[in-house]
Amino acid sequence: MADINNKIIPHFDKYPLISQKLADYILFKQALEFVNRKEHLTPEGLQEIVNLKASMNRGLSETLTAVFPNTEPVPRPQVEFKGIQDPDWLAGFTSAEGCLAIKICKSASLGRDASLRGFAGGDAKTNTGFNVCLVFLITQHSRDEVLMRSLVEYLNCGNCIKHTTRDSIEFIVTRFSDIETKVISFFYRHPIVGVKSLDFNDFCKVANIMKDGGHLTKEGLEQIREIKEGMNSGRK
Questions:
Q1: Range 2-67: architecture per CATH
Q2: 194-207 pLDDT per residue, tens
């Protein structure tokens, strides 16, 4: 608890969140105040905390809803997106939420892939019967639609896809020229950190193979497959 009060809270007060997660942070701080006053030890105080939790993230689980049937969710704070002020914010956001991936599929199936339709533009086609496409993707809850759409203008590339059934929105870049000159160049200047930096390194290796036309050969395609298999969830 001391670390939360003395380190976590001061950090995010000094460096505010800019997504809708800021609303969750505000509610989190309110709940923390109840705990600091020991009010969570009373039935009334505990219910107040549950009321706050009901408005955070995705709300209460079915179990908590059953245990606290009198819960009244508090109004969720309104957060106005004021733009990305620091490019390193996007590097950190990508380190946590972004995805750097390689798509390899049969030539005839590229147009049927809803995540790539209209974006690849045919600039990553091979002569081996397969297409190779680099994908930069960030997915968020649809409440952050304004933030996600701002990335198109901020990076001057990509597009957004809204998924109403999943209540989410994706920012996606697949055009190779944009990946090379905008996405990769941006993260060279503002590095991704953590294990995702290893995925970025592999992502760049594949980009270099494609830049030299290696993806048009069977040998290059196999090299890309090998790199792909060791990225993201395949990394050991």
A1: Roll (3.10)
A2: 999 999 999 999 99
- Alpha-carbon gap, residue 228 to 6, rounded angstroms: 42
Question: Domain extents for the chain?
Answer: 2-67, 87-234
Q: What is the pTM of this model?
A: 0.82
Neighbours of 93 (CB within 10 A): 19
87-234: CATH number:
3.10.28.10
Inter-CA distances, 2 with 150, 161, 165, Å: 37, 41, 41
Instruction: For residues 90 and 208, give the distance between their C-alpha atoms in angstroms, rounded to a whole number.
Output: 24
CA angle 223, 224, 225 (to 5 degrees): 90
Q: What tokens were used for 226?
A: 């090998």
Supply 26's token pair: 């505000």
| Residue bearing tokens 């209209």 | 118
Q: Give me the helices (H) in 15-162, please.
A: 21-36, 43-53, 62-67, 87-97, 145-155
Over the stretch 56-89, which tens digit does the pLDDT of each residue have? 988 999 999 999 999 999 999 999 998 998 999 9
Quick check: 228 and 102 in contact, CB under 8 A? yes
